[in-house]
Amino acid sequence: MSLIENIIRPDVRALSAYHVGASDGFLKLDAMENPYMLPEELRVELGRRLADVALNRYPIPSYPALKAAIREKMGVPKGYDVMLGNGSDELISLLMVACARRDLNAPAIVMAPLPTFVMYAMFAQFSGMGFVGISLKPDFSLDMPAMLAAIRQHKPAIIYLAYPNNPTGNLFAEGDIVDILGAVGESGIVVVDEAYQPFAQTSFMSRLPEFENLVVMRTVSKLGLAGVRLGYMSASKALLEQFEKVRPPYNVNVLTDAAVQFALENLQVLDYQAALLRGEREKQAAALAALPGVEVFPSNANFLLLRVANAEQVFEKLLARKVLIRNVGKMHALLSNCLRVNVSTPEENKQFLDAFKMCLS
Q1: Quick one: average pLDDT of 339-348?
Q2: What CA–CA distance (Å, rounded) separates 359 from 355?
Q3: Which residues are CB-contacts of 324 (< 8 A; sequence separation ≥ 6)?
Q4: HSE toward the beta carbon, residue 75, CA cutoff 13 A
Q5: Residues 88 and 217: beta-carbon distance below 8 Å
Q6: Same domain, residue pair 16 and 165
Q7: Would you give the distance in Å from CA 279 to the centre of its chain?
Q8: Rounded CA gap, 37 and 269, in Å?
Q9: pLDDT at 18
Q10: Burial zone of 92 (CB within 10 Å; 0-12 exposed, 13-18 middle, 19+ buried)
Q11: Mean of the per-residue pLDDT values of the chain
């Protein structure tokens, strides 16, 4: 046997790494980023702030100032704290590390509706947990009879509910999420992943005191700070105390700490950008829906899910024109012939729309 065969798990050897292709020279509409930078005067001030950061020192591992700013600005209920991660990806992974019990007859279970964010299933595999996916209904709503039956059967330790969901863009019914919280009870936690909350304008954050098993997770990436990599989540004090035990002590670097604090001091700028994108989302959805043969699904995120008869060909034609979107057709049967495209500035939205029209013909 080779070195790789001797030391690497078979299931890891069988995987393909998460691929992010080169995008230089492309109209980049595949990663759900905020296309707007901070205004120039704020960028200059941020540069001054970052220049004063002590790069020779480790961060304060409790991050008191950054946590206080998040609690104040992001609607965290009084008396609740937050846990920080290097993006929400790290938080997803750390939750599974904490919950992957080895003293059971079978692996602890992670559950999520499908299709959804692919990292839920991948991190479950990496941590040694089992994964159970429950297909959404054709309208992308939760199949509640199937979900509740699976909860009774598998007693999942974690259920992930992306709110809004990626890649479908829709919000699950609030009452359905409440029913899932009740069905899980003390046997597990329900993680409401609000990565796209700036574009949905609805949240479970204020409902944390109602549900002992609720975890609300967010990221600043979609808000306009994807490059600094910061995620945060809030839950009961008892849960956060346990999750903090598996968090690396210096997982958020000092530049991210300073940059996010500065951004939160100027949150009105990011909120204004999110409002612009919500308006562009409605305009772009209407323009795309007016095209023959194009189905546009309702979205509460900063992207649109489209269905066209020849999605693979359209995707390849767009690539040839240096337009980068996401072909999600192979993710799940419900997404057959579907493409996902970021909502961007009016100029970039028009560029995409013009190219898309030409590629449809």
Answers
A1: 98
A2: 6
A3: 21, 23, 26, 27, 28, 29, 30, 318
A4: 15
A5: yes
A6: no
A7: 21
A8: 10
A9: 72
A10: buried
A11: 96
Residues 31, 75, single domain; the answer is: no
Do 87 and 178 sit in the same domain of this protein?
yes
Q: Are residues 296 and 184 in the same domain?
A: no
Q: How many domains does the chain fold into?
A: 2
Domain containing residue 22: 3-37+268-360
CB-count exposure of residue 37 (10 Å: 0-12, 13-18, 19+)? exposed
- CATH number of residue 64's parent domain: 3.40.640.10
Residues 52 and 8 in one domain: no
- Shared domain for 172 and 199, answered yes or no, is yes
pLDDT of 3-33, one tens digit each? 999 999 998 898 887 767 677 889 999 999 9
Do 63 and 76 fall within a single domain? yes
> In this predicted model, what pLDDT tens digit does every residue of 171-206 receive, in sequence order?
999 999 999 999 999 999 999 999 999 999 999 999
Which residues have CB under 8 Å from 34's CB, separation 6+? 222, 223, 224, 226, 270, 273, 274, 277, 302
pLDDT value of position 361: 80
Tokens at 318, concatenated: 């767009």
Residue 323 near residue 23 (C-beta atoms within 8 A): no
In this prediction, residue 17 carries a pLDDT of 76
- Report CA-CA distances (Å) from 297 to 34, 222, 300, 307: 21, 20, 10, 8
